[in-house]
Fold:
Amino acid sequence: MIIAYVISCLLLAATFHALHIWSQTTDMARMMRLAFATLADRALNDDEKEVAIRRLSIQLLAVTAKLTVALAIVLAATALPVVLAAQAGMLTYEGFLLFSLEPLVILLTILALGAVPWLAKQLKAR
Structure:
């Protein structure tokens, strides 16, 4: 069970990084800030605002669709080791869920996944 959990966590981190989830999320936030700034811009008339907001909304829809697909891929990649281990009879879904929700397991997972970017930054600094 621990092996499936560790593999799932590693796949989560790897796919999250490989699919640029964080940068897509920040892109969405940037577009939304720009849309709100456009609405508040007194230098634009209503027609100009409508054109700008329509363009931004189409871009935001595209980023949202791309992010949704990417998150589905992350979820599938993360679930794959658990599903395979359950099919092989190595664990039960209930047992895996109970293990995953143990406070110590959650804490160690957060520490481990948080250490990866920190270590990468330390290695780049050298």
